[in-house]
Structures are given as structure tokens and as C-alpha cells.
Amino acid sequence: MLDIAVETHRPYSTVDAFPLQGLYLEEMQSAVDWLLEIRQEQDGLVGWGWIQHIPPNEQNTAEVVHAILLSMHELPSSALQILYQSARSFLLHPREHGRISADYCWMLMALQVMEQRLDWFRPVCNTAVLKSDIDRAKAECVDWLRAQQNADGGWGDTQGSISLVSRTAMAVLALREVGGVERAIEWLLAQQNPDGGFGNRSASSTNAEQLHEQLRYFTSHEKLEYQHQSNAACTGLAMLALRYSHLSAARSAIRRAYQWLMTHQQPGGGWNVFQEVGVRDGKVYTWRYFSTAWALQALILTGCCHYDDMPVLDAVDYLLSLQDEYTRGWRTSQDTDPFTWATCNALVTLHHLRRDAAKMKSKNWVAILREWKELKRQRAIHTVKLFRRFYSFNMPVAIAFSTVSSLLCLAAVWIVCRDLVHVRWAHYVLTSVIVTLMGGPWIVATRFSDRNLNWIQSFSLVYGPIGVLLGLLLMLV
Taking the CB of residue 175, how many other CB atoms lie within 10 A of it? Predict the structure, then answer.
């Protein structure tokens, strides 16, 4: 029997019970444990940096608070105390810490989730005071973001900087509750590339003066050209933002973006990491995006795919493979360290996948389990029942058994034949034994599973004649 019960000794849960209530739960809980463990404190401020042992900052702290509160259904008071301290350090005073639009977007989204989970914080603080602080901080974030919107409708890091798809989409996601994002939606629609995907910036929207200014910091135009090309992270972010529009053009853009994601999914199931490059305060910066996480969220939340569609299953399998076995944080690829922001992206993605899977009815789950069991039985070369358990042997096991048994039989025949070499009939008997033992596993592979013949019938039809012929041949030698 498959045991999918939720562990009762851990103080976490995520969504209400459903047939797959244990789905991704262990991975999510262990990731939350790691995030809480690696929190940093510096100059009286508690929070998270982009990686372990890095001083805390406002954006990564907001991402962690947002991800943990959104993905968990319950939290112990010790975890809530840490989140509350982190919020007081960074989120409740946005103008003291925020510098660019991404900071304010993440702080606003974290504050929104805190407000939704306000009752959780009763054991650690006065929730009436916290509610007042959250409302004030949210208003500061909204005012700052609206003031920094560019004339073209998009957002860059600050007002006047080049509008970027990633920043604009994040601003739409953050401001969706208060509205007023119509111009941003129109700007995003205009940035879709002819291939259906989205790059981080549009060549047509970059004026010559800005382009000339940024080219001074790069040795070639190639790195800037890459920012215009379609990538999975910006495509996913744009899809997530466009789903809040009622325009038919937005629905058409989502369909085209979905097709782009499908054609650019890697054989391993994921999408390539996108690296943003740009110039801020006279210095070149790089910014990586967990493309697989953003693409998966877009596919699920726009309704283009469901949890049981093959592109999603392949992508989830790849996503789960990126969880570090030691820390339980998430990497963006197999050759990187776990990052706090990547772990947050993965947590939110798994949260949405769980919510989509929660729509499954119990009878559907039973049907899927029965089908899987039957498929496993059919694909097995041979199945043996022993003490109420079924043992299935596949091709690698058959090859290993064939090799070992062949060597053992050859050694035995060599020893016996040294004394019986003058007896002609011994050659026939022993050769027949060798052939049948060596070919036993192959009988099952070729005859038993395909035509449901029993073991004796397979020996008789396949290796009986071969053994006789080889025995007769040896008798003539």
C-alpha cells in the first residue's frame, strides 16, 4: 500500500486534505527549514541575503517572507517570530531600504501575504498594530511604484531608466490588487517578439542615447542583443502579468507565449537560466532568473497546462532534481550553489502545483494508481510472487543474471568435462544445460512476457531445439 500520509510530528501543513496531500510536502518543508536556519543578522537587522552567509537585504528578505507565508498553511510560533522580526527590519519601512522597483514589488507582495495571514501572528505580536504598520508600508510601496512608472507605461529600476519586461511584469503582479496597470499591460503586449516569446527589453523601445550610454560598459553588442531575445523567464513573467487583463489581445499573446515555451523546453524538462545584464549607477550588474520556476508558474496559473500534462511533469521532475540533497535549498542548475531566491521561486511554484493537483478527485487518483501498477507489471520481464510480495525483474537484472550464470556454468562444465571427455553423450547433455541456463533470462524477455507462455513452454520452443543441435554438433567433433 502506498503511504502518502502527512507527517504529524512536524508543525507544518500547506493546503487542505486531498488525495495527494503529501505531494511535494517533504521537499517544501525541508526547504523552509533551511531558509529559517540560514537567516542572517547584521546591525540589528534580521533577514536574508541572496545566498547563505551574505548580509540581509530588503529584496531577498521580502522574497523569503512571501514564499514561506504563501506556501505554508500553518507555521510554528518560532517561525512566525523570525518572519515578524524580518518584516520589522525591512518590510515595514520600505522607503528606508528600497532602492529599485524590484525591491518595492517584492516588499509589496510580501506585505499583501502578511495581511492575509494576519491572524497567524497573534502569538508573537499585537496584530492591530501590525495591521496599521502593514497598511502604511503598502501605501508607501504603491506610491513609490506609481511615481516611478515610465512615460511609455513600463518600469525600469527607477523612473527614466530603460523599461524592462521583468520589472514591468513584477510591477503588474504587485499592483494587481490596487489596479491602474492598464498602460503597463499595453506596454507588455507591444514587447512580444515575432516568435511569440518575450525578451527583457525591446530594441525598438531603447532610444539611441541610452543604447550608446550602455555600450560604453560592454566590449561588444552581443550581451545587449541577448537581452532582446526571447527567454523563458521573461516569457513566463509576461504571461503571469497578462492574465490579469481582459483584453482579447492579452489572451492571444498568452497563447503565442505558451507555444514558445513548448518549443523551447529542454530535453531534461527545464528551461535555460536567463541572465540579465545592465548598467546601474555606472556599474555593470548581472541578475539571474530561475526560468523553469517562472515558466511552470505561467503554464499552471494561465490554464495553458495542468499538473498532469507531460510538459509540466517533465519540468517538475527537473525542478525537483535541483533541490540540494544536503541543504535542501534550490539550485538554478546542477552546477550552482543553492540560493535563497531560487528556493523561494521553487516553493511558490510547488505551492501552485499542489493547488492545481488538489482538484483531483479520489476516484481519479485510484484509477491512476491502478493503471500505473498494471503498466509496471506489463513492462516487467518477469514477476514472481513470494510471501505476498511481487518481485519484478527487468532487462538489466536479466543481463546481470545471464552473465553471472553463464560464467558459473562454463566453469562447472570445464571441471566435469575433464573426467567425461571420452563419453560422447556427456557432451550433448552438458551443452544443453549450458545453453538453457545461459538463455533463461532471454526466454522471459522474448517469449514469456509477450505471449504469456509459461517457463517450460518457453524452454521447449526456443532453447530445446538449439540445445539438441549444438549437442549433436559436439558429438561429431
Answer: 22
